[in-house]
Design a protein that fits this description.
Elements (H helix, E strand, L loop, with lengths): L1 H15 L7 E12 L2 H7 L5 E8 L4 E18 L2 E22 L2 E18 L4 E19 L4 E11 L16 E11 L1
Antiparallel strand pairs: 1-2, 1-8, 2-3, 3-4, 4-5, 5-6, 6-7, 7-8
Length: 189
């Protein structure tokens, strides 16, 4: 999956590079992930996603973005009076359309899109290893402050919905989505 994820990201990135140089940006961000589903939140708690994103404007204030994200979390499951350590990893390729509102050095953006997600849950003390790939959708708002004509800082609030339609006997549908609040640095290319 890692090769395929990188391949898809590079293809879309090459498509975005066709946009004019002043309308293309690259950013790296990290922050906080708060799972939506109570059971998922109880097992893992909050997480720290890492994201790389390419954005391009195609009209005056309308554009597209695509990213590559990684999330790794440790947790515990309880059963029969015992604790079972867990490891959860997810690689995502989010893509979105957005509209931005420029206000001098500040840019506000709002957008929506989808994501392709590959995730794995591994129980560390028993031989349970679950892997799956699912599509999801997202909505977001972001704030950018231009430090110069090239560099900017950003903050983004995003809601993801990633229903898996898989679960245990006790829980029929697990949703891996939630709220992400990230901040980072970017460069206009």
């Amino acid at each position: 999956m890692k090769f395929r994820t990188l391949f898809i990201f590079l293809i879309f990135s090459s498509f975005l590079t066709r946009a004019s140089a002043e309308n293309l940006s690259l950013s790296f961000s990290s922050g906080l992930f708060l799972p939506k589903q109570k059971e998922f939140k109880d097992m893992y708690g909050p997480g720290n996603p890492y994201a790389l994103e390419v954005r391009a404007l195609f009209l005056k204030n309308f554009g597209f973005s695509m990213g590559l994200e990684y999330l790794s979390m440790k947790g515990n499951a309880s059963g029969g009076g015992e604790e079972y350590p867990l490891r959860f990893k997810m690689t995502s390729i989010p893509f979105a359309a957005f509209y931005r509102f420029p206000l001098k050095k500040i840019l506000l953006s709002f957008g929506f899109g989808g994501s392709y997600n590959s995730f794995q849950e591994k129980w560390e003390t028993v031989e349970i290893d679950f892997k799956e790939k699912k599509w999801g959708y997202l909505v977001f708002s972001s704030f950018e402050y231009r430090l110069s004509s090239k560099f900017f800082v950003l903050a983004k609030l995003r809601y993801d919905n990633i229903p898996t339609k898989k679960g245990s006997l006790l829980l029929k549908n697990v949703n891996l989505g939630g709220v992400k609040l990230v901040a980072g640095l970017g460069i206009s290319l």
